[in-house]
Amino acid sequence: MFKSPNDPKEYRYLTLDNQLRVLLVHDQAAPRSAAALSVGIGHFDDPLDRQGMAHFLEHMLFLGTEKFPHPGEFQSFVNQYGGSNNAWTGTENTTYFFEIVPPAFAAGLERFGQFFTAPLFNADSVDKERQAVDSEYKLKLKDDVRRLYQVHKETINPEHPFAKFSVGDLSTLEDRPDLPVRDELIAFYKQHYSANLMGLVLLGPQSLDELQTFAEQFFGAIPNVGKEKPAIAVPLVTDRENARFIAIEPIKEVRKLTLSFSLPAMEIHYRSKPLSYLAHLLGNEGTGSLMSLLKSEGLINTLAAGGGISGSNFREFTIGLNLTPKGLEQTDHIVTTIFQYIHLIAEQGLAEWRYREKRAVLEQAFRYQEKSRPLDTVSYLVMNLMHYAPEDIVYGDYMMSHYDEPLLKEVLAMLRPDNLRLTLVAKGQAHDRVADWYHTPYSVKPFTEAQLQAWSAPGVHPALTLPEPNPYLCERLDPHPLTCQRDDIPQLIQDLPGFRLWYKQEHEFRVPKGQVYVAIDSPHAVSSVRNIVKTRLCVEMLMESCNEAAYPAEVAGMAYNLYAHQGGVTLQLSGFSEKQPLLLKLLLEKFSGRTFKQERFASIKAQMLRNWRNAAEDKPISQLFNQLTGLLQPNNPPYPALIQELETVEISELPDFVDAMFAELHIDAFVYGDWRKDEALALAEVLKDAFRVTDQLYGEAQRPLVHLGESGTLRFEVDCGHADSAILIYHQSREQSPREIAIFTLANHLMSTTFFHELRTEQQLGYMVGTANLPLNRYPGLLLYIQSPVAGPLQLLEAIDEFTNAFALVLLELNESQWQASKQGLIAQLSEPDTNLRARAQRYWVSIGHKDDHFDQRQKIAAEMATLSRAELVRFMVEAIKPRTANRLIAYAQGDAHRNLTPLETGEPITSVSLFQQTAC
Fold first, then answer.
1. Residue 332, SS3?
2. What does it do (predicted)?
């Protein structure tokens, strides 16, 4: 099996006696063990009269097996031992995965393996879980992604299994006379869950032999019913569905044009990747590109190429464009321009040097790929196991084995108007149909003869050119030699008025990559909601001005980001370090030569307004979270407040604002990774010159937080404009100490699975149910939340209060080994070594921001957690979380479906946000 020279893991591929394909991965440094099992069965296999069956089955396998009959046992066990688990149902695969501390892996696999040999399908659980599936379906009724996906299903060949409804609801999963859904569920499971259609990946610090023993012991008994999947006999698109214009009405303010070309399955060409080559050219954002021209004409904001659905007998190749209002009126011209570029590629773009350049980028990415979390690793490897030859499971995603010009020409020949479906998602179009399930208005009409003729002979556009050789491709493929001195933590190597520089050369991961963070704090940037809006507007304008020139750097494996935060803005560079100074120079030149052009200002302002208005239409839980954090953090206003200010901002305000912002600033910079100290110091001089740092007297901007204090229960109602009701309950710590963080973290850890099981699985209050850590400005916090299609806020609060009142007793009922195991699982998570350079850089950067100059906050929290007694946590639950004694903030929304229910009136209402925030400190 081919692997990266920088990959220390050992691999073994085998097939068990029952024909289950297995990949074993020995990773000596893995902090957790992980497993993923994928079944080559998905919603394509649903019976026509039981659509959603594969998805329903995925839910049911978590709800008890013969040896472990309690419905929440698996999740509780995994959580107790510091792990996590999930599953997803796709078109032709259903995949299950979990990770856990290594000593508990065998016991976890024993429980996991039973999913595929001895599930109970308990009748009571069947009835409750179809309610959960129905809640999941209803949760997405106003989700544009699902609404558009359903139109996609209705406008392809109705004989193709892609046309089926994939989620399921109470009507498709109902019991029928003499035919309970449970009987059909069991029959579906026995028919399809066959070992020869499955793939399994096990990863951990255990030896390959030990992992093989686990595979045989816990998965060798999965039955092989000898089922072979029949090939899909019908095409995704026929002539009846091709050459069609589809207009769809979204809920959110969207203007998106998508060109979808229908291709045969392309998976067999994964070694040469012809679509990657073409997407690389069509999606180019540099000078002379399709994106550059259409943007300069004021027609589009973004362009992406190469997406689209795929399956065992089809592949879509899509080009997606976000349109400006002007572009919405010129869609035919946009399509003509795209065909002009396709013609240019066919005439001049097929060159082996371009293929080699793309391959070099992928080879570098493969050679220096950074480790991912065990759970993420097994999740992508199990899909590769199902689709690639055994020797290519690790390498397949990065392979570009040979330049195949005849194949490229063959694919290009399919990118033609009569093989195109054009979809426009925008408000205000004419519609004559409504999609099933999600009630999406849409229309379909054939292309006109004039369109087909114009697009078939598009001509040549003189402004379109193919990309030049990439100047950002790295030539130094090995990291710098290590310096003699090894510092375990970053060092503050410059501490000047208004400027601090932290530095560390990376000694462990040994990749030629680096991370640079530059935090620019300015009190003026965050002194009012209007200034916060102007800061974000300037950030977007600068990012947009850099896009075209910096695009080759992104292609070559570097990334940059500029983002606003509660103190000002932060610039971040990442990826291969050799050419990062060149990229930084470009970004700073764009900054110093900043220009404010009316046309781009208007376009970006409109984009931001649209994005923020769309976010304000998100599902209720998301809206409540945004309102809650905005309420507590005055420098982080919620979307409605941002929208109100942005609507009246004029371009004339920006030059003076930027001058004032940069007249008083404080910079914290961190240079980390494959950098020498002299390079870091040189970079610091470039930054100081660019930002004119000369003995500033300004410190960092304040980041105020509203403290709840002895508030009792406060409530804040939000109108979310949604059928569902939702509630968030926030408990805030008064301290930032490691012990307080340990208490809040452990409380969340212990509550999470029980809360989910009680309120979602047992009481079926909704699909989105959970608890979470919510630290704000370094103060720990605990969040409990539910979004519900069946209950109003008062009922949800009563259910949560009943749970928190009783939870102290749950803690007292834990035996000593369960108590210690829960603590040790969480301590293991806290003590987990960083997976890769990027994760470590992020941790160091957060520590710098938190003034954790010794970079040992995690260790302090773990040490405090080790000494926490059960009595202390029970006392915390009774005194801080129990409703009668808690100081808490309830954010809630009474759904349109529950307007007739008794309103929530518990606690004191927050009637004035500004008055409430005056208590900030």
1. helix
2. Endopeptidase that degrades small peptides of less than 7 kDa, such as glucagon and insulin.
Buried b (16+ CB within 10 A) or exposed e, 11-29: bbeeebebebbbbbbbbee
Residue 893 near residue 726, CB atoms below 8 Å: yes
Question: In this structure, is the dihedral angle defined by the CA atoms of residues 486, 487, 490 and 493, taken in order, positive or negative?
Answer: negative
At position 375, the amino acid (one-letter code) is L
What's the rounded Cα separation, in Å, for the pair 438 and 142? 8
Q: Is 597 exposed, middle or buried (0-12, 13-18, 19+ CB in 10 A)?
A: exposed
CA distance from start to end of the chain? 58
pLDDT per residue over 57-86, tens digit each? Answer: 999 999 999 999 999 899 999 999 989 999
**pLDDT value of position 482:** 86
Identify the H or E element spanning 910: none
Q: Taking a C-beta distance cutoff of 8 angstroms, is the pair 360, 453 a contact? A: no
3-state secondary structure 179-217: ECHHHHHHHHHHHHCCHHHEEEEEEECCCHHHHHHHHHH
| Cα–Cα distance list, 591 to 236, 523, 684 (Å) | 48, 20, 16
Q: Is 39 left (phi over 0), alpha (psi -120 to 50) or beta?
A: beta
Phi-psi region of 231 (alpha: psi -120 to 50; beta: other; left: phi over 0): beta
| Helix (H), strand (E) at residue 307 | strand 300-307
C-alpha dist (Å) from residue 168 to 50, 54, 482: 8, 9, 57
Tokens read off for 147? 């609404």
Phi (first) and psi of residue 681, to 5 degrees = -65, -40
Output helix, strand, coil percentages for the chain, rounded to the nearest 5. Answer: 45, 20, 40
Euclidean distance between CA atoms 628 and 782, whole angstroms: 13
What the chain holds in terms of domains, given with CATH numbers, is: 10-220 (3.30.830.10), 244-456 (3.30.830.10), 491-698 (3.30.830.10), 713-920 (3.30.830.10)
SS3 125: helix
Distance set, CA 154 to CA 251, 257, 296 (Å)? 19, 18, 36
pLDDT score recorded for residue 485: 67
CA 538 to chain centre: 26
Q: Which residues touch 903 (CB under 8 Å, ≥6 apart)? A: 792, 793, 794, 894
Q: What is the pLDDT of residue 107?
A: 98
Q: Of the candidates 597, 404, 568, which has an alpha carbon nearest to the alpha carbon of residue 498? A: 568
Q: DSSP assignment, residue 525?
A: G
Contact 312, 231 (CB under 8 A): yes
Residues of the chain with pLDDT under 50: none
Q: Which two tokens stand for residue 861?
A: 């929290």
Q: For residue 655, what are the CA distances in angstroms to 230, 538, 596, 609, 696?
A: 65, 10, 8, 21, 21
What is the distance between the alpha carbons of residues 39 and 431, in angstroms, rounded to a whole number? 39
What separation in angstroms does the CA of 164 have from each of 135, 161, 238? Answer: 19, 6, 17
Cβ pair 506, 370 in contact under 8 A: no
Q: Which pLDDT score is estimated for 40? A: 97
Residue by residue, DSSP assigns 382-400 as: HHHHHHS-GGGTTTTTT--
Degrees to nearest 5, angle at CA 493 with 491 and 497:
125
What's the token pair of residue 776?
């704000």
Instruction: Give the count of beta carbons closer than 10 Å to the beta carbon of residue 566.
Output: 18
- Sign of the alpha-carbon dihedral angle for 172, 178, 180, 185: negative
C-alpha–C-alpha distance, residues 327 and 291, integer Å: 13
Q: What angle do CA 742, 743, 748 make, to 5 degrees?
A: 100
Q: Which residues are registered as beta bridge partners of 114?
A: none
Between β-strands 33-39 and 94-100, what pairing exists: parallel, antiparallel or unpaired?
A: antiparallel
